[in-house]
UniProtKB/TrEMBL annotation:
One of its GO terms (cellular component) is extracellular region. It comes from Friedmanniomyces simplex. Alpha-L-arabinofuranosidase involved in the hydrolysis of xylan, a major structural heterogeneous polysaccharide found in plant biomass representing the second most abundant polysaccharide in the biosphere, after cellulose. It catalyses: Hydrolysis of terminal non-reducing alpha-L-arabinofuranoside residues in alpha-L-arabinosides. The keyword Secreted applies. This is Alpha-L-arabinofuranosidase.
Length: 313
């Protein structure tokens, strides 16, 4: 994989619908499946977070597509945020993993049927002791699930410089999730939240984690490993050589955001291995008008698309 990344960015493609009362659309997860994009995201407003699903064949049609608010489904109302979508091939089920104060999930046989999601279940009976101890006053956030041929690994963050990982066997999943361990640590803002982990082939895994830069803007750092429970080695992981930051993104038109924040690779292989091609990556991210002020939950986050412009392939 490249040790230096360059990107172009679209303008905002998905934002709150007018009249919805929602301040921001955030934290997207996306797969391209059966000729359509399927985007799951957080809806943010002063009163809290929920989830939304939209599907469309072309990015130009995303904002005009139907927004399916998942609090109207068995997923229910209350705190639901930061979704991840994948197809768990051994059970022939779609999984939506999200946070609800715990690490939660719902399942569905049909990704296109919002009413088909099950009631939330959690991977743990309560917040694990290590996370309680290490997060301090910060939150346990941003669950991310990926499986290798034998084991499923759950990554999560504490907004306090630590990336956690826990695991269960592929055959036991979703039951049997073990106690978390610290997979990577750094200072609080250098390893903040919003981790993604992917298989990029040749027994190589790519990790990206959101950081808060010296200028206060969000960006991504990256690492690789030869195993999901292995040692993570820096790839493009500095402010000067980031994975994705406003400094290595060229905007089509006006630079509408200075933060490149919580998002997801566009995946065309949708199963639990989260295999992506390392060629010409596309990344759906959240950005925000740099002049916006106010409480974090009321900021007008929107979704834009990065496309890698210096792929070696």
């Amino acid at each position: 994989m490249s040790h230096h990344f360059e990107w172009s960015s679209s303008g905002p493609l998905i934002g709150p619908q007018s009249g919805s009362g929602i301040a921001g659309i955030k934290d997207p997860s996306v797969v391209f499946y059966n000729g359509a994009y399927h985007v799951f995201a957080s809806t943010a407003q002063e009163s809290g977070y929920s989830l939304v699903y939209i599907t469309f064949a072309d990015w130009a049609d995303a904002q005009s597509s139907t927004f399916h608010y998942l609090d109207q489904t068995p997923i229910g109302s209350g705190y639901r945020a930061a979704p991840e979508i994948f197809y768990f091939e051994p059970q022939k089920l779609w999984y939506l993993v999200y946070q609800n104060g715990n690490a939660a999930y719902s399942t569905n046989t049909d990704i296109t049927d919002p009413s088909g999601w099950t009631d939330p279940k959690t991977f743990y009976p309560s917040e694990p002791a290590l996370i309680q101890q290490d997060a301090g006053t910060n939150a346990w956030v941003d669950m991310w699930l990926i499986c290798d041929p034998t084991t499923c690994h759950l990554f999560s963050s504490d907004d306090n410089g630590q990336l956690f990982r826990s695991s269960t066997s592929l055959s036991d999943f979703p039951a049997g999730m073990g106690a978390p361990v610290v997979a990577l640590q750094d200072s609080q803002y250098a390893l903040f939240e919003a981790s993604n982990v992917y298989s990029v082939g040749n027994d190589t895994y790519l990790l990206i984690v959101e950081a808060i830069g010296s200028d206060g803007n969000r960006y991504f750092r990256s690492w690789t490993s030869d195993a999901l429970d292995g040692i993570w080695t820096g790839l493009a992981e500095t402010e000067a050589n980031p994975f994705a930051r406003s400094t290595n993104v060229v905007f089509e038109g006006e630079a509408w955001t200075q933060s490149i924040s919580h998002g997801e690779m566009v995946r065309t292989q949708v199963d639990q291995t989260l295999r992506i091609s390392p060629c010409k990556l596309q990344y759906l991210y959240q950005g925000v008008d740099p002049t916006a002020t106010g409480d974090y939950n009321t900021l007008p986050w929107e979704l834009g698309l990065l496309t890698q412009t210096n792929s070696a392939c």
